[in-house]
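For the sake of transparency, this paper describes our internal protein records without simplification. Such a record has a labelled line for the sequence and another for the backbone structure tokens. Nothing more is needed to write down the fold, since each code stands for a local backbone conformation. For reference, a complete record is included directly beneath this paragraph.
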Amino acid sequence: MTETLRSDLEDVYGRYEELRSGVDELQRSIATMQVSAESPDGAVRATVDADGRLVDLMLHPTACRDWDVNTLARVIVETVQSASAGKYEQIEHLVTHHRPA
């Protein structure tokens, strides 16, 4: 094998290792990602994980006291949906910033 070919192969392998490392880092970032959203009045805060599963829900005491159950349920659902939408934006941001140069 010529020295030039060996050098070219080492260069290609080095670039492959960089890409592989970047993909591993991206997968770790997405796997541990959590995204939160808050209702417009701040009474409800929902956090979802990378799969869109609800992992935390915070309710301000006034929401439970002042709203009827239907309003509270609607605001919770809307806030969780907003957090899930934010999840896709966050994934897009991560992927964009992990692209190879």
Q: What stands out?
A: The first strand starts at residue 34 and ends at 38. Strands lie at 34-38, 44-49, 54-59. Helices lie at 3-31, 61-66, 69-97. The mean pLDDT is 87.
